[in-house]
Design brief:
239 residues, mainly alpha, RDD, cell membrane, Pra-immunoreactive, membrane
Length: 239
């Protein structure tokens, strides 16, 4: 008696095929007991389902950042090589002229006012002690000191502005005029304000050894100064 066949509840044995004949084939509608189940077929005319590509699971390695030579920020242009030392020097001079123009004028006016007070002292007669005492006590005009303080504030504000531009976009006014850009060596992206500030401080390394670090890009393969090597930055051409 068979208890495992749900299609034969009474325990009867299925009829045996005569000797030499094949067993009957079960109908196509439903497979018989023991036959493998077939997946349902889609009706004719329906679109066939395409296999869905597997999704990248959690834990798989993500795509790495684009190395140097890949496109950086939109609108900034693709790097086409390392910037020359001459282009970097011209960009530095342009930035220095822009930042130092107004403070230089203010310092000049303050110097003229201070020189006028000295001329007043010199104009006194050699034996006119009262005139000399009055001129020495008066000293430079107070407005001259105001101009000096104002010039220092303007120079500081201009330097911070250039530093923010260089950190966020990789280009100061001078670098943009010379079509060069400061980027990270490994990703080709701008340094950011913090690392740009660190790089500015690291220029001390360029000046400490008789300013040889400023000339190092002339023979360096990547055109880097000591400060560039310290923070991992390069200056590249954008055209």
């Amino acid at each position: 008696m068979s208890f495992g066949d749900p299609n034969n509840p009474y325990g009867q044995q299925p009829p045996q095929a005569p000797y030499g004949q094949q067993p009957p084939v079960p109908p196509q509608g439903q497979p018989g007991y023991g036959y493998p189940q077939q997946p349902p077929q889609q009706p004719y005319g329906y679109p066939q389902q395409q296999p869905v590509p597997p999704q990248q699971g959690y834990g798989y390695p993500q795509q790495a950042a684009a190395p140097y030579g890949q496109p950086g920020m939109p609108g900034m242009g693709m790097p086409t090589g390392y910037a020359s030392w001459g282009a970097r020097l011209c960009a530095l001079l342009i930035d220095g002229l822009i930042v130092g123009l107004v403070p230089g004028i203010l310092y000049g006016i303050a110097a003229i006012m201070a020189a006028s007070s000295v001329s007043d002292y010199d104009s006194c007669a050699y034996d006119d002690y009262q005139c000399r005492a009055d001129a020495a006590s008066a000293g430079p005009p107070a407005f001259a000191f105001v101009l000096i303080g104002l010039a220092a504030l303007v120079a500081m504000a201009g330097g911070i502005f250039m530093l923010v531009k260089e950190g966020n976009t990789g280009q100061t006014v001078g670098k943009k005029a010379m079509s060069i850009r400061l980027v990270r060596e490994d990703t080709g992206q701008p340094l950011g304000f913090g690392m740009a500030f660190v790089r500015r401080l690291a220029h001390f390394l360029d000046s400490i050894a008789c300013y040889i670090g400023w000339l190092w890009p002339l023979w360096d393969d990547k055109g880097q100064t000591f400060a560039d090597k310290a923070v991992g930055s390069v200056v590249v051409k954008t055209q």
